[in-house]
């Protein structure tokens, strides 16, 4: 199994939820957060998969071309992506699904099956406006053209991957678990978005249900520790892939893996 973080950029994000590009370790604007965006490419002997395909063109001056260029660095073309897994439907996690580079909406990965929570998708479609008019058009296009696989709690969308609804950051937020023998990872979107969240105990105002986020994060970190999962952290700036190396009375110690890893029989090669 090969895992690659496909760094899309670091952004200053304020209350208006606009993503302004900035230096990777720079200081965000006043009253704004610094957020890095790192979609993940996972390759095993059967599939080429993306986990949360990122912001796409929904940032200020951003484009899905960044993601496509990263894939080209690994000799992968758009039509080779077999599956895309969405943790939740905030646009910085799903924007890479489609683009308008030719002036109209097109699927970025035309042959991929897109896995997402059934009830979150139904909630999006029930809204007259999804964030704004542009993103509403985006959602309607995906509903009409994308190959969507709507998941319920604890479905197994494909062999080796299962999901559970953890809620917290969004109402129907998903955590994904990959298992192929000892080759294992967790990708939990914005419930476990950086290594700094591993030992976080405070309630974040940006979560849909902050207390549920705390409970889910505790469950996920405990599982990662006990069962030796790698963690894929979508919003980490420098260490998007890590695992928990020990547990102390003060919390977990973290082993930093980096931005890519090749795993065989549970070991880094």
Word description of this protein:
The protein is of the alpha+beta class and 269 residues long. It has a single domain (2-268), classed as Metallo-beta-lactamase, Chain A (4-Layer Sandwich). The chain has helices at residues 65-73, 91-94, 118-126, 133-145, 210-227; strands at residues 2-5, 9-13, 19-22, 33-37, 40-43, 48-51, 83-85, 98-99, 106-107, 113-117, 147-151, 161-165, 174-180, 183-187, 230-232, 241-248, 251-258, 260-264, 267-268. It has an eight-stranded mixed beta sheet with strand order 11-10-7-6-5-1-18-19. A six-stranded mixed beta sheet has the order 12-13-14-15-16-17. The chain has a three-stranded antiparallel beta sheet with strand order 3-2-4, with no helix packed on it. A hairpin with a 5-residue loop joins strand 2 (9-13) and strand 3. The N and C termini lie close together (10 Å). The mean pLDDT is 95.
Quick recap of the structure?
This protein has 269 residues and is an alpha+beta fold.
- Total domains, how many? 1
Number of helices: 5
How are the strands of the largest sheet arranged? 11-10-7-6-5-1-18-19
Q: What percentage of residues falls in helices of 4 or more residues? A: 10-25%
Classified by CATH, the class is Alpha Beta
Percent in strands: 25-35%
Specify the CATH homologous superfamily.
Ribonuclease Z/Hydroxyacylglutathione hydrolase-like
Multimer state? single chain
Query: What's the mean pLDDT score?
Result: 95
Order of helices and strands: EEEEEEHEHEEEHHEEEEHEEEEE
